[in-house]
Amino acid sequence: MDQKIISLAAEKTADRLQEFLQTLKEDDLADLLQNQAVKGKAAGALLRAIFKGSPCSVEAGALRRLKVYTCGIQLVESGDLHKEVASEIIGLLMLEAHNFPGPFLVELANEFVGAIQEGSLMNGKSLELLPIILTALATKKENLVYGKGELNGEECKKQLINTLCSGRWNQQYVIQLTSMFKDVPLTAEEVEFVMEKVLRMFSKLNLQEIPPLVYQLLVLSSKGSRKRVLEGIIAFFSELDKQHNEEQSGDELLDLVTVPSGELRHVEGTIILHIVFAIKLDCELGRELLKQLKAGQQGDFSNNICPFSIALLLSVTRIPRFEEQVFDLLKTLVIKSFKDLQLLQGSKFLQNLVPHRSCVSTMILEVVKNSVHSWDHVTQGLVELGFILMDSYGPKKIFDGKTIETSSGLSRMPNQQACKLGANILLETFKIHEMIRQEILEQVLNRVVTRASSPISHFLDLLSNIVMYAPLVLQSCSSKVTETFDYISFLPLQTVQGLLKAVQPLLKVSMSMRDSLIIVLRKAMFASQLDARKSAVAGFLLLLKNFKVLGSLSSSQCSQSVGVSQVHVDVHSRYNSVANETFCLEIMDSLRRCLGQQADVRLMLYEGFYDVLRRNSQLANSIMQILLSQLKQFYEPKSDVLPPLKLEACILTQGDQIALQEPLDYLLCCIQHCLAWYKSRVMPLQQEEEEEEEEGFYQDLDDMLESITNRMIKSELEDFELDKSADFSQSTGVGIKNNICAFLVMGVCEVLIEYNFSISNFSKNKFEEVLSLFMSYKKLSDVLNEKAGKGRTKTANKTNDSFLSMKFVSHLLTALFRDSTQRHEESLSVLRSSNEFMRYAVSVALQKVQQLKETGHVSGPDGQNPEKIFQNLCDITRVLLWRYTSIPTSVEELGKKEKGKSISLLCLEGLQKVFSAVQQFCQPKIHQFLRALDVTDKEEEEVEVSVNERAAFQIRQFQRALLNLLSSQEEDFNSKEALLLVTVLSSLSKLLEPSSPQFVQMLSWTSKICKEYSWEDASFCKGLMNLLFSLHVLYKSPVTLLRDLSQDIHGQLGDIDQDVEVEKTNHFAMVNLRTAAPTVCLLVLSQAEKVLEEVDWLITRLKGQVSQEIISEQASSQAALPNHPVEKAIIMQLGTLLTFFHELVQTALPSGSCVDALLKDLCKMYTILTALVRYNKKSKSLTHTGEKEKTAAVATAMARVLRETKPIPNLIFAIEQYEKFLIHLSKKSKVNLMQHMKLSTSRDFKIKGNILDMVLREDEGDEDDEGTASEHRGQNKEPAKKKRKKEMKCLS
Fold first, then answer.
1. At what angle do helices 493-509 and 511-525 cross, to 10 degrees?
2. How far apart are alpha carbons 153 and 573 in whole angstroms?
3. How confident is the model over 1069-1127, as pLDDT tens digits?
4. Phi, then psi, of 1147 in degrees rounded to 5
5. Compositionally biased, Basic and acidic residues: which spans (predicted)?
6. Distance CA 816, CA 805 (A)
7. How many other C-beta atoms can be found within 10 angstroms of the C-beta atom of residue 253?
């Protein structure tokens, strides 16, 4: 039968074929087709023949075709056919589909939809036919019966797609169905239906099925809905990541159901690749991604900024046209995230309203962690981002050459954090990805070399961390490091020191690198630039410190800790130590030559020798020999010759140039410290096997120092030719020389004071010598100060640097103030009898702390060792605290005869510096520090006292001191001490937890002081008010406080209308006639500005959320609900602020800064009101107060128009904008918001004639003023006619 059909089909006409087919039953035809298809014979030929004999124009033919289609689809789905046969059948069915009449197409499509919803498809092969059927249907223009109504083809297609997307899809056909839609012509609305359906299916699929589905979705997105696709994908993976992290950090039992971490990351990586590929082909998709993420950063970005979207962005940077935009977006995201965090941390008001958000930095570091799962497409972007952050936000250079990196001002905090994040990204990427290590190292080293002029400490820190992590791995990159060494001669000293310190662990594992460094350093030693020679000395000293010679004492800080697990090249093995000894002695030879160079080079050497000795004690002999022979050149051996030192030999005269040749004071200081260390650490161990000739050095040095001491005491100023009659001017050669000599003598005296005190063992004679040395120092210091006071500039900076070491200062202060041992009593009374000596000891301690605050380290031995510095700082603080609290300033000043600050006041100043330095540099050790201050704290006590309680205990001591001061008579009130106490309280209050009762008590105490005490001291008032505000903002919003203060200011200064008498409120006694303006006024205005900034931030955030809610329709029903408390809070804040401004604008403020600040804040206020009106329809409650305040504001502004013209046009413009949007809102909301508002005519300035005459008489040059006034008004954005009219009125 099949042969007959095929042979009939071969005839020219189809008449006989049609007749034959009509004789067949439908089932016969179906069976015939099935048999042929299963056998795989001529199924295709048979189908063609049947179609030829079943024209669609005849109803019977069309029905036969329908039956064949149904049969064909079942056959293909059955899975019984060969692939080729199935494909042939589907191909033929596709070809003929467009010939079907509309109703049959609808019927076929309905069968498909039914099969999909019932899940009766077996292998989904027939789905290829559905797009053809839907496309054919869409072309039918006639009305077709669909369901109960009639629709045209396009509408039928829409209904079918709607039904299809509303029903259930079997998960195995999701990908095929999605792929199918790309061949169907869809409208935007239909694309939206399909997208929503597919995105809903994500959660039902296996993880491995999602990448191909995403691929199909992205192909489909070319028809529209790009935004929805990206949103859906990002939201799905964001949620998946969250669940994954919760499960990982949660119960271990959950591990059974969790997707393995590696699998999830691989899937995410594949999807990111798909999206990036799609963006390359469709730039619109890339633009949509950026647009969407930019919008997200405005509101609460937790919706679409997550580790997945950041990884996606970083991959997009590989597309050149998007690279710059993406990095700009990421930079903005990072810095905004840190700024928001800072804003939140500084305001309790915001913390209560805004939930804690995850920080972008955490997300980026998570991306680094995830990138270990072959995310090679992300790593390059990560590295670039790390460097961009470090370059953009690293420390900056300021005018005097210092860097700003040490200042921890709040404004710099986000920048510092962004820079630190950049370094963390690079370090973590370096740890994870071997492929990229070389590139990171090269880029860091390039920056170290090429950016010599700008601060690069952040790159050196990163380099140090990289080297510490993997010294052995970096051996492969040694060529790059040795190449960097070649530039050492040209780099600044600080950079060289940082660089060598960072790569030092590499030198221990790579001999070739060490050798190349030594060659470079030797060359540098004889370079013509002074900096290069100093760098050579620094390099050699570093090597000496770190290559220990066998037999050297172990010191707890001996060597920089190297990544011990990696460096198993044992540096202390017998062979290495012998090699090290030869190596170190060679270096010592090189260094010995430095002693013939400039003073700066020698000085570096003297400063470094002590550290070398402490870490490499076997070099003691060589070092001591060098120092001894150097000292002999300047030492007068005859014991009766005064002075004992040849100062002339220390000064070099070349023509007119006079310079220091030998820093003798530093030489003696170095000798003294090395000698002390040697006696305490090495000699006790050597006593059994002591060798006579070795002992000689130390005995010689001791004798020489003893002799110098005795002769320095006997020497008068005349012996040095430095008496009062000497010339100390900087303009003459003799004057410069005398200055240099004077500083050398003072330095030598200080060194000898420390030497004699440390060897004294509390002997009275020695202490008398110490005091005599101090008197010599003091005499010379007085002469210098007296000469400098006579109009000459202060001499060299060395006066700022005492030679006493910090450790000695802490011992000295403890002995002077806290040593109550009976047998020390008599000898210490010698020193205690001199108030000047005690004041000197405290002032040196202050100098050391100041140095620590400014640079992060101190001069002298162990000055770079944070542990030792911290220990000494604790000891010094304990003494200063005891001295200040036990002998108050008032008691001390009663019997005081000398000029200058009292010791108690100096102690307080020291405490103020210490507390701020500790918070800056020792933040993690605060608890340890406070415990060290507590003298009553016994070591045995097991009970742990919190930082809060310890800080509160210290705060109470200073509160008592301030209360005593405030209770004293007015003439006894010491303003400087009061201000210092407030500063100390401010520092300590930062240690209190804002939620603790101690904090609340501190706040109420400060508030009480401001309310009850009235002192007419502006700086004290400012300090106290600042403290009050800084505490208040961490407890609740300060608007009510501002309102009360504004009423006090109004009461004190009176009203602008002189006829009005203002009732004095007196909330705060601290606000009086003297302090109200400008002190308190400027303070409250700056505080109001901060509140306005917070409100502005909240409104911007709300706007961002609204724009996101418009996108997601699900949220539209409750759009207003989540924001309700925020909106209410904004309106409360602004309402109270309006009252505050209302008070101030009616106050008779003095012209100048107060009025300028007020007008600027008013301008900001109106801009924010306008923003609120534009955002929301709920702001009508504000407009009532708004009108009162506005009129008054403008009235007062106009009254002063001749004086302060600049800010006024801006204010008027802001008011008019506010009115404009208020009118818009009135129309929209059908509520008359303008009922209390009178449209502003304040531009046409009304000036009272009598006042104008008076002003004109006072100031003859007022015509010029008028000219400038009209010019400024011209800046306003008003029509020209109105401007002219206004000017005429002003002048009339």
1. 150
2. 91
3. 999 888 888 899 999 999 999 999 999 999 888 887 776 665 554 433 444 445 678 88
4. -85, 140
5. 1269-1279
6. 16
7. 8
